[in-house]
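Input/output pair, single chain:
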Amino acid sequence: MALRNWESPSTRHHWSGIASPAKWLFAFLALSIVTLVVTIPVNATVANEPDNDYAYGFGWALMMPVPIIALLWTLVDIFICRSSTLHPIYALVASILLAIGYFCVGLLTILFFSYEHMPRTLY
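Output:
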């Protein structure tokens, strides 16, 4: 797959000698999709159980914005990379912000996970 076709000439010029912006963005697109796929079952099962200490729907309201925003942000960046100039500094700052969001969602997923429902042989 020729990923250089996804880059505008201006973006390719700004990224010359650094990295491939298309590979960078497609990695974050895959990460956004995986995060969204993992977050939905956790919210549907563990975070909204009746014994949850928080209000009903708390998991959806707290955990879903980051994967959705990250997916939309990455899609916009892919459009910018293809049609305009995606600057490397912008991509680095955006990636750091998305990584912080992914870390927070992962931490919340771990905190919401209930060890009571696991078989005794696993721990």
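Helices lie at 9-14, 21-47, 58-63, 65-83, 88-112. The radius of gyration is 18 Å.
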